[in-house]
């Protein structure tokens, strides 16, 4: 009888502990879903910004490869050249993950969910590493741009730009600016070539791939967390 009582007590304690861990896992899952939802919003904006920038940089390269610099309206050079200095930035909302990691609470998650979370975190670290590696290149791009474009006209182009929301850009004003001819500081082809090569070295296309992968992983993890822990929308 004593053995049976001890055994039943042990089983009951395991059940209580399992219920407690499941409830804690659900609490963490709910806050992680909120973090991931914020990430998806930021990543979509990042993809829009970077994609728009890459498109304009490609246009600049086509212009320079097909025409003599002096035959291109300088407004176009200012506008499309502006995006070589684009600086997309994504910072993951990882407070819940870091808390779980430091406290050992990731064990509360189902193993397949915990693996997904760890994979997503590794991808976030990769994205941050890419951005950190781009900082030096970004600074050099800005220096070269300052040798080509006058500040006041560069600012005019920048004021017209809203790359995070391309649909909000006033197209008529952009067309008018592109058809204008504000002065450049130089028409030296070698400086333009250095600028374009430096911009190409920033590998913004790679950033799009990483951000897109992150977005897909975040969306899948949200779905799996909601399903596993019965989280309402």
Short recap of the structure:
This protein has about 230 residues and is mainly alpha-helical. The chain has eight helices and no strands.
Descriptive notes:
With 233 residues, this protein is mainly alpha-helical. It has one domain. Helices cover 76% and strands 0% of the residues. It is built from eight helices and no strands. It has helices spanning 2-66, 74-82, 95-103, 111-148, 151-160, 171-178, 189-200, 204-229. Helix 1 packs across helix 3 (95-103) and helix 2 (74-82) crosses helix 5. The longest helix has 65 residues, at 2-66. The protein starts with a helix and ends with a helix. The model is unreliable at 8-16 (pLDDT under 50).
List keywords for this structure.
233 residues, mainly alpha
Which structural class fits the helix and strand makeup? Answer: mainly alpha
Q: Bin the strand percentage.
A: under 5%
Helix segment count? 8
What separation lies between the terminal Cα atoms? Answer: 49 Å
Largest sheet composition: none
One letter per element, helices H and strands E, the order comes to: HHHHHHHH
Number of E-state strands: 0
Helix content: over 70%
Q: What's the pLDDT, averaged over the residues?
A: 87
Overall outline: elongated
Query: In angstroms, what is the radius of gyration?
Result: 26 Å
Can you tell me the number of structural domains?
A: 1
Segments where pLDDT lies below 50 for 5+ residues? Answer: 8-16
């Amino acid at each position: 009888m004593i053995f049976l009582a001890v055994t039943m007590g042990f089983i009951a304690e395991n059940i209580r502990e399992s219920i407690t861990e499941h409830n804690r896992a659900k609490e963490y899952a709910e806050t992680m879903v909120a973090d991931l939802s914020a990430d998806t919003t930021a990543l979509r904006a990042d993809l829009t910004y970077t994609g728009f920038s890459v498109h304009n940089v490609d246009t600049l390269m086509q212009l320079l490869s097909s025409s003599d610099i002096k035959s291109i309206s300088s407004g176009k050079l200012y506008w499309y050249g502006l995006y070589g200095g684009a600086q997309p930035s994504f910072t993951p909302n990882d407070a819940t993950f870091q808390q779980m990691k430091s406290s050992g609470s990731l064990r509360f998650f189902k193993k397949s969910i915990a693996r997904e979370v760890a994979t997503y975190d590794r991808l976030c670290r990769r994205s941050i590493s890419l951005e950190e590696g781009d900082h030096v290149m970004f600074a050099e791009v800005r220096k070269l741009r300052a040798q080509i474009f006058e500040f006041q006209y560069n600012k005019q182009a920048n004021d017209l730009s809203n790359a995070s929301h391309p649909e909000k850009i006033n197209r008529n004003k952009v067309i008018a600016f592109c058809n204008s001819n504000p002065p450049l500081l130089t028409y030296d082809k070698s400086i333009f070539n250095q600028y374009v090569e430096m911009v190409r070295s920033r590998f913004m296309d790679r950033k799009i791939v990483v951000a897109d992968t992150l977005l897909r992983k975040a969306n899948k993890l949200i779905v799996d967390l909601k399903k596993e822990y019965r989280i309402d929308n």
